[in-house]
């Protein structure tokens, strides 16, 4: 079970890294543009790992905990590699992180009045300060955490859908 999950997590993570670096050749902001493809890759590899275990190694049966365990290993491995890929990209092409941060700061400043009205000026200024002090490691950490949250949701959903008890 663990070998299957690690195999799928490593391949999915490697594809995410290759996609990120490939997109960096053609796009100005590959980190934000890669979010949707990363989600799809994560879903495909969690599903494939659970299905492979169920069909090949477990005679067509799957308990929820088995699916959840496989999904956990897949999304943690894939998320760690994706985060490492974002960190590596930020180290090799620091302008990509700066472009992303400039875009986020611009969006944040354009919503200043509404944000101050809803959350207060202190919150607005604190978040703006955080954006201005962000670097590649903070962006990589954010990507890692986002993928973990999505992985949890996808894993539970897929494990519930694909579970099948023995007769």
Structural overview:
The relative contact order is 0.18. This protein has 8 helices and no strands. The radius of gyration is 19 Å and the shape is elongated. α1 (2-26) runs parallel beside α4 (64-92). It has helices spanning 2-26, 30-33, 35-57, 64-92, 94-110, 112-119, 121-133, 136-162. With 167 residues, the protein is mainly alpha-helical. The chain has one domain (2-162). 87% of the residues lie in helices and 0% in strands. The mean pLDDT is 88.
Give a quick summary of the entry.
By secondary structure, the chain is mainly alpha-helical. The protein is 87% helix and 0% strand. The longest helix is centred in the middle third of the chain and has 29 residues, at 64-92.
Would you spell out the secondary-structure blueprint of this structure?
Blueprint: H1 2-26, H2 30-33, H3 35-57, H4 64-92, H5 94-110, H6 112-119, H7 121-133, H8 136-162
Helix pairs in contact: 1-3, 1-4, 3-4, 3-8, 4-5, 4-8, 5-7, 6-7
Looking at this protein, list some descriptive labels.
167 residues, mainly alpha, elongated, membrane, DUF4199 domain-containing protein, DUF4199, transmembrane
């Amino acid at each position: 079970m663990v070998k299957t999950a690690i195999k799928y997590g490593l391949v999915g993570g490697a594809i995410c890294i290759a996609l990120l670096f490939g997109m960096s050749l053609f796009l100005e902001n590959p980190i934000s543009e890669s979010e949707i493809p990363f989600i799809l890759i994560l879903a495909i590899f969690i599903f494939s790992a659970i299905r492979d275990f169920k069909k090949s190694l477990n005679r067509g049966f799957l308990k929820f905990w088995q699916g959840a365990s496989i999904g956990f290993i897949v999304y943690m491995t894939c998320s760690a590699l994706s985060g490492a890929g974002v960190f590596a990209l930020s180290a090799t092409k620091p302008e990509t992180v700066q472009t992303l941060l400039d875009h986020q700061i611009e969006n944040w400043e354009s919503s200043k009045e509404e944000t101050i009205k809803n959350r207060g000026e202190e919150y607005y200024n604190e978040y703006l300060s955080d954006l201005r002090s962000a670097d590649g490691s903070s962006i990589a950490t954010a990507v890692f955490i986002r993928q973990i949250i999505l992985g949890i949701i996808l894993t539970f959903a897929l494990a519930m859908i694909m579970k099948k008890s023995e007769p």
